[in-house]
Amino acid sequence: MDKEDSRYYEEVVASKRMFGGKIFDVDVEQVILPNGIPAIRELVRHHGAVAIIPFTDDDRMIFVRQWREPMEQETLEIPAGKIDQDEGSDLQEVALREMNEELGLTTDKLEKVTTFYTSPGYSDEKLTVFKAANLKQVEDKRPLDSDEFLNVEKLTLDEAKKQIEDGVICDSKSIYAVTYWELMNAKN
Predict the structure, then answer these.
(1) Which of 76, 162, 177, 187 could form a disulfide with 63 if both were Cys (CB 3.0 to 4.6 A apart)?
(2) Are 181 and 92 in contact (CB under 8 A)?
């Protein structure tokens, strides 16, 4: 559906870049709502990201433990990373890069699971999720980003569900991954 055909379409009448960063930009838009009333939208513009649901041969999922300052806590998350501005459109390559950096692993079995917007109320960040199996150690491990400190942990499904219950797995992509895992097991 074209945006002009939507009965919920908001017409942008002005836009101003308030912040331009390495990871995201922030724009403030003045819009006219469908009922003709003006409103302000604060938008985070993001280049997108990938996430990987990595399964081991012994039916565990691999997570990374790291500190997340916005929440002021350690989290367990599936490996993920942003798409750099200079990277092409091959999201599988981006996923393999992230697996190499964060896990020291690669795969010849990478399958796209889904794509979704992480927080469409204020951000255009699009996340593409891949499932990885048949994991192998990489020959040349890429270094972590200079501001990344993490540990790799392998969990069973029950352990992962407990970590959700305890609030350690608390981000949408990782909760999605565990739910996806549970549904895969229910089908088998």
Answers:
(1) 76
(2) no
